[in-house]
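COMPLEX REQUEST
Ligand: farnesyl diphosphate
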Amino acid sequence: MNKKPKHVAIIMDGNGRWAQKHGKKRFLGHKKGAKVVKEIVEEATKNEIEFLTLFAFSTDNWSRPKDEVNLLMKLLVGSLKNEFKRIIDNNIRLCSIGNLDTLPDLVKDELMFVVEKTKTNSGMVLTLALNYGGKEEIVNALKSISNKVKNSIISPQDVDEFTLIEHLYSKNLPPVDLLIRTSGEERISNFLLWHIAYAELYFTRTLWPDFNKKDLEKALLNYSKRERRFGKTREQLDV
Ligand code: FPP
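STATUS: Structure written out below.
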C-alpha cells in the first residue's frame, strides 16, 4: 500500500464544457477554474503533498481563439498577483516548466517575480506547466545533449536516463506518482511524458470547475489503495 503520493500532477480539463452547461461564456469556466486551483493548492498543502504540477497552458492552446488566449493570460497574471501573499504564507515554492520565451511579457514578469521571491521556500513545490509540451521538452533535451556530444562535453557512451532528465524543463521534479485528469477525457495530452512512466492514472468525470477538496481526497484515497509494482511481482514487493 502507498500512503501518500509525493508528486501529484493534474490536467485541469472541462472549463469550457462547464461554462456551456451553465449557459455562460467559456471565459467564466476558466475563471471558476482558477478559483478551484486556489482550493486545490490549499488542500494539497494541508495533505503535505511535496510536489503539485498543474497543466495551465499547453503548446497547442495557442490555436484557441485569440480572445480566449488573451483572457487566459490575464487570468494567470491576476491569479499570481492575488495569490502571492497566500503562496508566501504557506511557504510554497512556485516553479514553471515549458517554453516561457513566447509568453507575453506581463505573464513572464509576474511569474519570474513570484518564482524568485519563493525560491528558498521549503514547503510544497507548485509547478505551473505553461506553454508546455511533453514531446517538445524531450526533443529540446535531445538537441542540447547532441550539441554537448558534438562539442565533446559528453561522450556518447555516458548518455543515459539521467543525462536526459538533466536536460528536461522538469529536471527538478521527481517522477509523477499520481496523475489526475478531470472532465471524463482519458488521455495524457502530451503532459509530462517522461515523468509519468510509472504514474498511477486517475480519471474523473467531474469538470474542473466543479472539482473540490473532497474530490482530491477521493483521488488520494484511491491512490492509497493501489499496488505499485514497478515491474516486479507481488511476492518481491512483500520481501
Ligand atoms: C481546460 O479546459 C483548461 C485550460 C486549457 C486552462 C486551465 C486554466 C485554468 C484552470 C485557469 C487558470 C490557471 C491557473 C494556474 C491560475 P478546456 O477549456 O479545454 O475545457 P473544455 O475541454 O470543456 O472546452
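REMARKS: The radius of gyration is 19 Å. The chain has one domain: 7-133+175-228.
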